[in-house]
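Board notes (copied after class):
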Amino acid sequence: MPSPSMPVAETPPAAEKGAIRMPAPADGAFADALPDRLRAGVVDFAHRASASFRPARTAVLGYLIARAINLAVLGAMALATGKPFWSMVGSWDGVWFRDIADFGYVDKIPVSPAGKPYWTNVEFFPGYPWAVRLVGDVTGLSALNAGMVVTVLAGVVAAWGLYALGRELTGNHEVATLFALLWGVAPGSMVLTMVYSEALFVAFASWGLLALVRRQWTLACALCLFAGLTRNTAFGLVAAMGVAALAIVLGRREDGTRVGLLAPQARRPVLATLVSPLACVGFIAWVGWLAGRPDGWVWIQDKAFNLRFDWGISTVQWMARYLTHLGRPIYVVCTFVIILSVALMIWSLRDRRIPLPVHVYGGVVMFLALTTSNGWFFHSKPRFMLPAFTIVLPLARLMAKWPRGVVISVLVAGAAFAGWYVGFLLYVINTNP
């Protein structure tokens, strides 16, 4: 091999003329190769997905068993009360989602003569009903049955995502499995067996947090956008992305100087953070435009659905009332669920092994759930807290040390309790879970 200082003889013109040249590719060669490239990409993705799913099978199977227990309890309560069974999985919020899937959104906000908005479907985000409509169009199923298909499939993806996130954070198979299963048997988890949007949201949020922990900014941003089309609790994911991006911007280089906002390594995180809330904010802005006022979505929530932000004052007041006065026992149960959840959140926040963005996500979701005044729906707090799945990770670490029989008993009891709690609200009190 010649050294860099050694002259290299030039190719003689005659040899250049006689050189053999490769034929130029035909114009359509790239287009002809495109299907093969796509096929190879799909096969590679399927292999990687299969390898990722294999260790999560126990978590997914346990999640599906919990859903079966939910339905069994709901069926027993339907039989005991003499009320319908299957239609109840699509009741309350499910009616609104089915209406959007079948007929779309209203083109005008109905308002009373006094200027107060009536209940209207623009209160509900479009991601879930759009998915229901897609499945219905493809399969020919009714909105109720298509909704259950979406809920079940989304729940499987969510349980898989929670396992993957737990494995990423702890490196332990048992803890990751319990992390997914504890979410799947939480007190409000019966709605994961109904035409509700929580399962789809957690599917996006769990994988979005995993992408964020791995610093896959484009994927995290895309999943945050999908989550923002599903529920306003996507602001928890946006906040987590902002904290992760800020950590990079405020980080220091080897020479001790700060990275800064415009540094190459900060551009993608900052851009992803700026883009991530656009779906959620865009839908809220569209409702405002439809209502003819910028705060249209908040206005409808407040005046029509009795939901407003009050820093948690009403939540504390209702809890104090149910702990000190006679009333329905179900509200006392809900009060203790809230206390337990707050204790789990505090425990979780003390765990420094969990990255700060994960803490931020769980904290923001819990904050939104507890600071929203809902005198009509105080009993729905367990459902509102369901997306705050990160708070059960320390409990999963602890339970991984317990005997297997005890763990299984706790999980089965949790699934049965979740079915009873929502079933009681549906069949006895006749209210929204």
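Comment from the instructor: The longest strand covers residues 308-309. Confidence is low (pLDDT under 50) at residues 1-22.
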